[in-house]
Amino acid sequence: MDAQQSDVANAVRIRDALDPLLIEDALWHASPADIFGLKEHIAAMERAVGAADPVAFVHANWRLHAAIAACSPDALLSSLYSSLLDLIEAHTLTVLPAGEEPLAPYIAHRHELHSDLVDALERRDREAALRLIHEHNTGLQPEEQAAQR
Asked: Which pTM does this prediction carry?
């Protein structure tokens, strides 16, 4: 992130807080065409993983999140979320894994997580979708989440 790091960190925090609301909306309102579009973004993420291109990966990731937000009938929520994504994207200079994990396995795991999330949305599996978005936002695996309780 560039010099606006605190603004971006705050935007990420707010985006993460809005994610469960958008997942709830997508569970109720995503059409088959919306799900098809989400899967196209997952395919773009997969191509970026295969090409070892973390920049393409993160851009495909943001497009996926914007498409999930577009499923919401709440124009204010969708617009606010999209604005946060724009701010984050405008100030992101590079892509790095969390912690000590090498980049290639990190983006492969993030791809799998997003793919599982879209599958849960397609199945209308609320419990799985909310668990996956929590894992997405915390970086914790389910067994790590259970250990924290």
From this structure: 0.86
